[in-house]
Write a structure and sequence with these properties.
Elements: H1 15-18, H2 31-43, E1 49-52, H3 59-71, E2 79-83, H4 90-102, E3 111-116, H5 123-135, E4 140-146, H6 154-157, E5 161-164, H7 170-184, H8 190-200, H9 204-215, H10 223-229, H11 235-246, H12 250-263, H13 268-278, H14 286-304, H15 309-323
Parallel strand pairs: 1-4, 1-5, 2-3, 3-4
Helix pairs in contact: 2-3, 4-5, 7-8, 7-9, 8-9, 8-10, 9-10, 11-12, 11-13, 11-15, 12-15, 13-14, 14-15
Length: about 325
């Protein structure tokens, strides 16, 4: 393994930071968006921006890359990053944002405030943010990042250029994973790459963290190592469980579920996610697929609202078995 960059205190950097793209042109899988962003940077004329999309697809990386290209070595002094999920109240908008916006800066037309997980801000905080955006529009540009743009109030959305990031394509994740493995001197099998791509599900952060975790053992990173370290069920295990239920074998399907939950320690919510991703691989007719999706959605809702995972998953399998 190659030498790893050292962070403060002599500890190794996690690969997520070590291999974070430094420029917009290095962000993979979002070329249509980064080209638009690059045009703003080239003109040095940013507007307020709203980045929406799932986790691990390049929203934060793109914001930091914009700051690096605009400010060079001074980017950290002109870029304020806040996480709204940690600081949800109106005080963060009134105090920290305003304090940063009011401070002086030299040689630049504006500074950037990046508000991550902005959809976690309360309505009052978003209203305060809207007024702050108006008050400091001459010398501050806001970049807001969220998973769901529908949670952002309309007055803020109308003030921003909206960029919708989608899940990263499998080939983009595979390319990045191969490059990191080659740089670090890791032996990575083709099956291991396929497993990382599957586990990631369009999330580059999950792929890189999974690779680093699997590589800690110092052995070959193969399919078994990836699924074990990420606590993810193999696609064929999920398929076997559902196939048994579809064949009316509830006892066999329940036994498979019990093994996933107990022996492998996989969370019920993760099993639901994998079930949802695998529905169209079961060769069901459209009507059966719709019924299965309906039951998966119901179980997912109940689990997220606090219901017992095992009971809901067993009920899902029982429902599938009864209707088979």
């Amino acid at each position: 393994m190659s030498e790893v960059e050292q962070s403060q205190g002599g500890r190794e950097k996690i690969w997520l930071e070590k291999y974070r793209p430094q420029r917009l042109s290095e962000v993979v899988g979002q070329e249509a968006i980064t080209e638009r962003l690059q045009s703003y940077v080239d003109r040095d004329d940013l507007s307020h921006m709203l980045f929406s999309g799932p986790a691990g697809v390049g929203k934060t990386t793109s914001a930091i890359a914009i700051a690096r290209e605009l400010y060079g070595d001074d980017w950290e002094e002109n870029f304020l990053e806040l996480n709204a999920s940690d600081e949800r109240g109106i005080d963060v908008v009134r105090d920290r944002v305003k304090s940063f916006a009011r401070t002086s800066f030299g040689g630049y037309n504006y500074r950037i405030i990046f508000l991550d997980e902005a959809d976690a801000l309360t309505s009052d905080a978003q209203s305060a943010l809207r007024r702050t955006m108006e008050q400091f529009s001459n010398n501050v540009r806001f970049i807001l990042s969220c998973n769901y743009s529908s949670q952002i109030i309309d007055p803020i959305q109308s003030r921003c250029a909206v960029f919708r990031f989608g899940p990263l394509p499998d080939d983009a994740i595979e390319h990045q994973v191969r490059e990191i493995a080659a740089t670090e001197g890791i032996e990575l099998t083709d099956a291991g790459i396929d497993a990382l791509v599957y586990v990631a599900g369009g999330d580059m952060r999950a792929a890189i963290n999974g690779l680093q975790a699997a590589a800690v053992t110092g052995q070959v990173v193969d399919e078994e190592a990836v699924f074990e370290i990420t606590s993810t069920a193999r696609p064929e295990e999920i398929e076997e469980m559902v196939t048994r239920a579809l064949d009316g074998d509830f006892t066999g399907a329940r036994s498979q579920l019990d093994r996933l939950l107990t022996d492998e320690g996989i969370a019920g919510g993760d099993i639901i996610d994998q079930l949802h991703r695998s529905v169209w691989e079961f060769e069901l007719d459209d009507e059966a697929a719709v019924r299965l999706l309906d039951r998966i959605g119901e179980a997912d809702y109940r689990i997220t609202t606090g219901a017992n995972e095992r009971i809901q998953l067993e009920a899902l399998l029982a429902s599938v078995s009864l209707s088979s």
